[in-house]
């Protein structure tokens, strides 16, 4: 019998990605049902959607019948409707940036003000109202770029830049299964697929599940940086600056070279992430 390890399924239970600028911009991940082309999300009631992604691809909001890579949004019911020929895949999640009154406190690793300082976006003289005013015209755009940069760099490095909780189903027949989306900060539970608790061992840094050596293991765990390392934070700032400076132009979907160079030393190597 071949001994192998395999990530069989994953579910993002919670993350700290909600971000609110002065204008109430937030970002969230939302579950959908495979095979359906519409979903009702209570968080979308009363919301104004500025960005929406399906499996990394941006979708455009329309008012009529949606076509490919388009959707409609009913802010009264929170329903999102997509093209009927593009139903949701198993395990798919929607990623949306949206505005609501109130909102959560920013938990992105880079703040809007930090980006504005990095870009040297200064205030202006206003003789009528006050000696000076803060420049906030692009706060919505900057908030969106922060989330986009973080998500791109998370995908590139295989790491979680913010605190998250995952539940994964794995096969650990070879032992030493590398737990994805680190750094892992706490193992909440290790069970079989029927919900029975299993005795387990890990490496000291919680990066690998050593035992049990078996199939059909479900792990719930917490991961992510409480404080993002300086190199990764700088990579985010470089990527945001690149996207901000080149906004309106046709920009490649890949990370900018400076961000790649800064993030590469942190990239998870030799794992299932490839």
Summarize this entry quickly:
With 274 residues, the protein is α+β, with helices and mostly antiparallel strands. Among the domains are: 25-61 and 68-99, no CATH class; 112-160 and 227-249, no CATH class.
Question: Can you describe what's shown?
Answer:
Helix content is 18%, strand content 32%. It is built from 4 helices and 17 strands. The strands form 5 sheets. It has a 4-stranded antiparallel β-sheet with strand order 1-12-17-14, with no helix packed on it. The protein has a 4-stranded antiparallel β-sheet with strand order 2-9-4-5, covered by helices on one side. A 4-stranded mixed β-sheet has the order 3-8-7-6, with no helix packed on it. Strand 15 (201-202) and strand 16 (208-211) form a beta hairpin.
Q: What are the secondary-structure elements, in order, as H or E?
A: EEEEEEEEEHEEHEEEEEEHH
What is the overall pLDDT average? 85
Q: What is the 3D form?
A: globular
Secondary structure: number of strands: 17
Strand content: 25-35%
What is the overall number of helices? 4
Stretches with pLDDT under 50, minimum 5 residues: 19-23, 102-106, 124-133, 270-274
For the record, give the distance between the C-alpha atoms at the N and C termini, rounded to a whole number. 24 Å
The main β sheet shows up as: 4 strands, antiparallel
Structural class: alpha+beta
| Share of residues in helices | 10-25%
Strand order of the largest sheet: 1-12-17-14
Radius of gyration: 21 Å
């Amino acid at each position: 019998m071949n001994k192998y390890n395999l990530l069989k399924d994953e579910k993002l239970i919670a993350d700290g990605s909600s971000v609110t600028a002065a204008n109430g911009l937030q970002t969230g991940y939302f579950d959908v049902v495979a095979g359906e082309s519409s979903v009702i999300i209570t968080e979308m009631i009363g919301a104004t959607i500025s960005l929406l992604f399906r499996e990394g691809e941006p979708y455009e909001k329309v008012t009529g019948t949606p076509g490919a890579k388009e959707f409609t949004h009913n802010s009264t019911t929170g329903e999102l409707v997509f093209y009927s020929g593009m139903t949701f895949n198993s395990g798919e999640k929607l990623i949306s940036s949206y505005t609501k009154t109130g909102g959560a406190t920013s938990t992105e690793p880079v703040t809007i003000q930090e980006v504005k300082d990095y870009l040297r976006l200064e205030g202006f003289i206003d003789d009528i109202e006050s000696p000076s005013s803060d420049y906030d015209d692009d706060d919505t755009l900057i908030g969106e770029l922060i989330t986009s940069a973080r998500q791109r760099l998370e995908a590139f490095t295989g790491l979680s830049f913010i605190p998250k909780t995952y539940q994964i189903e794995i096969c650990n027949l070879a032992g030493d299964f590398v737990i994805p989306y680190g750094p892992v900060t706490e193992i909440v539970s290790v069970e079989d697929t029927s919900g029975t608790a299993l005795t387990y061992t890990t490496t000291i840094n919680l990066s690998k599940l050593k035992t049990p050596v078996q199939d059909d293991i479900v792990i719930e765990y917490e991961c992510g940086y409480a404080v993002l390392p300086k190199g990764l934070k700088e990579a985010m700032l470089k990527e945001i600056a690149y996207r901000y400076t080149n906004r309106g132009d046709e920009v490649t979907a890949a990370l900018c070279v400076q961000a790649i160079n800064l993030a590469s030393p942190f990239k998870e190597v030799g794992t299932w992430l490839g």
